[in-house]
Structure formats: structure tokens, C-alpha cells
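Sequence only, no structure available. Ideas?
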Amino acid sequence: MNRLFIFIFLVLAGMANGQNAPKKLKAGEEATTESGVKIRMISPGKGKPIEKGDKIRVHYTGTLVDDRKFDSSRDKDQPFEFVVGMKQVIQGWDDAFVTLKGGDKALLTIPPDLGYGDTPMPKIPAGSWLVFDVEVLEVIKDFAPKQFDTKGHETSTSASGLSYTILEQGTGIKADKGKTVEVHYTGFLENGDIFDSSVLRGQPISFRLGAGMVIPGWDEGIAYLNAGGKALLSIPYELAYGEAGRPPVIPPKARLIFNVELVTVK
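Reply:
I predicted one. C-alpha cells follow.
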């Protein structure tokens, strides 16, 4: 989407990168990811290896390099949950946790460019290295949404170049121009990577249809549905973010694939 396309995550984050750091460190051993996160194993666990798209529960304590604590889930007695590789956390976390497994206790040292960079945060000065004492409590496999299966459904292409497959038309109010709609969505790049998802956040977005609050492919595609409907939209870059894209999340001239579910129409 455009101005309303919500890149709101739990913290500032970049795209997740594949890492080649060892997945089976022994206690006291260290490794560094390709991006520069240093991992020191405190106590190895025996659980499942963590992969992109897994939901994990972790305990953590975050400090600066001078040992000043800025945050701790342990102090709150509330484990933190996120989906790995979905840009819900700082890039250093996405990069580090795909090298760990369930039960691991490790110390992560994250350079500024994989944390908050030059942006000051509460208790975290700009340009800070971050140190996290983490424990992986639970790994839930394959939690991230998958692209809708369109087998057995007709795919149409409009005059504008939008391709759409209606999986369920919906039986509620028609999504006409000027109406306010609530939509759940997951956005994929053509390689299958998720770049944003209201489903993972657990909160649909609301906007006025046809008012230019979203990318043109959305204004057109959502209008084919009634409330309760579901569709897969394949949107050419001309109807999305154009030739420039939205680096680093959306590449130039990117065709975007969306699962969309029209929750309400008002």
C-alpha cells in the first residue's frame, strides 16, 4: 500500500538476511553471523533449530556495553514472542536467532547498524552497541502465513494489469468506492518472502476505498470483493511502488503478491 501501508513493527527493523553461523555451538564457544552479530553460547539447548517463519518465545535482558540495563523480559516476568525473519524486531535479532535452537541460552552482541543505528531510544543512546542475554523458551514451527492456494480458482487480469484470484466472494456489503473497509493481508515478494502482514500483528488495517490512501492495486483489487471475501492479488509495480520501490523492504520494479481478506465494509 501507499501512505497507509503500515510498516509498523514492534521495533525498527530491516530485512532479515540468511546467515551461515554454526547452529550447534558448545558452551563457551562463539560465532559471528555474516552481518556482524557476535553470538556466545552460554548453555546449549536440545530443542528444534529456529528457522525464518517460526514463532519463538524468549526471555532476554538487554544492556549497553558498559552493563547499563535498558530492558528485560525477566524483570517483567513476561516472555517476549515474535516471528523470526518477519521484521518484527531489530535486524540483529532476526539474524542471530536463526542460528539458535530451542532451549539455547546465549549472549548476543549487536552492532549499531543492526540495532537502532543513529536513532536514540529510551535508555539507548544513538550509535549504541547492544548486548542481549537471551534464552529460547519455545519454538513454534511454520507459524508465518503461506500464500493462498489458488488451485481450482480462475485468475483474471484487468485492463490495468492487475491479476486477481477470488477465492471467496463474500456475502456481506460490496466494497464500493468511498466506503471504509477493514482488511487483513499478508504481502509477499515474488521469491516468497513476506515483507509485511497484518495477520502477524493481529490487527487488520482500515482505510477509505478509492481515496488514494493505498496503492492503486489495492483500491482496484479490494473493490472486487464483498465483506467476508478472500482473494490473492498479484500487483505489477506500476500499481504498487513504481520503478523505485521502497528500499530496503521492497525492491525496485517489484511485483507484489497479497493474500487479502475483506473483514468489514462500512
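The mean pLDDT is 91.
Hope that gets you unstuck.
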